[in-house]
Design goal:
Length: about 110
């Protein structure tokens, strides 16, 4: 990897909402936008803007099913896999990240909105 690639990865992950989205995807694999909106308790436009940023950075990919769009982590290189594995492990102690995940599970929203 080149230095500018490292910079783009860290820049993409430097925003709290994007980190929260990444953590949900790390834990659940694939989620619909409505699941992410519900879990993070932010507007759809905010979530969509951050998902677009992550997609443009190559960190997430999407697929359309009817009118719904589902996001998952993009296939990545070893550096990104190791970085995200460390983030996932460390995130287990973060109250905010655990709260997002608990809301997703408690509301039973996974794939029920779509």
């Amino acid at each position: 990897m080149q230095l500018d690639e490292f910079s783009n990865i860290f820049k993409s992950l430097s925003e709290p909402v994007r980190l929260r989205v990444m953590y949900l995807l790390l834990e659940r694999g694939e989620l619909c936008v409505c699941d992410i909106v519900s879990s993070l308790e932010v507007s759809q436009s905010v979530v969509s803007r951050h998902l677009a940023y992550l997609r443009n950075a190559g960190l997430v990919s999407s697929r359309r099913q009817g009118v719904w769009i589902y996001y998952q982590l993009a296939e990545s290189n070893d550096f990104i896999r190791q970085l995200l594995a460390l983030f996932k492990q460390s995130g287990e102690d973060c109250v905010t990240l655990k709260g997002d995940l608990n809301r997703l599970q408690a509301e039973g929203r996974e794939s029920n909105c779509c």
